[in-house]
């Protein structure tokens, strides 16, 4: 009797555990966590070529291992980061680079605009989906029209004559 009750309790717990909501695909904000775009990894420490040529430390100033995203972006786009003088604006040698990278316009508050547009989109999509009988993947349901089918895109590119050396593996559902 006691053994069958234990099996019944374990089976019930296992059955109910399958109803847990998938938190990785839950699109609602679960808390005020860190902003992943504000975290800047530091550069690895390196030994200077000459200890006698080091500048005197000044409190509050940056050091050689601090990240410099602006200079790294200039270098990634083909510019010269050493030409960047803090507080001086854009150097004359880099005006062409800045002009080319901002040729379609620069939106200074693009993250706030995108967040507001997405919040309005989610509000429109959630109106009819408040009550569900079974657990549903809300992310897949709301953004289903915005997903790209890799197989259809690959076929379209191949029909257009674009060389596609590798294709995603087909997984039937």
Could you tell me the strand content as a percent range? under 5%
Main beta sheet: none
Helix content: 25-40%
Through-space gap between termini = 43 Å
Question: Number of helical segments?
Answer: 6
Listing every helix as H and every strand as E from the N terminus to the C terminus, the arrangement reads: HHHHHH
Poorly predicted segments: none
Give an account of the 3D structure.
The protein has 173 residues and is mainly alpha-helical. The protein has helices at 2-17, 69-76, 95-101, 110-126, 138-142, 150-159. It has a domain at 66-107. Helices cover 36% and strands 0% of the residues. The longest helix has 17 residues, at 110-126. It is extended.
Short description:
Helix content is 36%, strand content 0%.
Write the layout of secondary structure elements.
Elements: H1 2-17, H2 69-76, H3 95-101, H4 110-126, H5 138-142, H6 150-159
Looking at this protein, list some descriptive labels.
173 residues; 36% helix; mainly alpha; extended
């Amino acid at each position: 009797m006691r053994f069958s009750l234990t099996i019944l309790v374990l089976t019930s717990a296992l059955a109910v555990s399958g109803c847990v909501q998938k938190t990785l695909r839950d699109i609602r904000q679960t808390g005020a966590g860190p902003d992943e775009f504000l975290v800047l990894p530091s550069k690895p420490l390196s030994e200077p070529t000459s200890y006698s040529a080091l500048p005197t430390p000044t409190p509050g100033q940056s050091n050689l291992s601090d990240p410099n995203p602006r200079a790294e972006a200039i270098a990634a786009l083909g510019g010269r980061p050493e030409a960047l003088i803090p507080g001086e604006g854009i150097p004359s040698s880099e005006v062409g680079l800045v002009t080319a990278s901002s040729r379609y316009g620069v939106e200074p508050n693009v993250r706030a605009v995108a967040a507001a547009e997405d919040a309005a989109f989610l509000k429109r999509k959630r109106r009819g989906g408040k009550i569900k009988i079974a657990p549903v993947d809300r992310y897949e349901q709301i953004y289903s029209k915005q997903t790209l089918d890799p197989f259809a895109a690959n076929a379209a590119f191949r029909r257009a004559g674009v060389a596609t050396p590798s294709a995603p593996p087909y997984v039937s559902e």
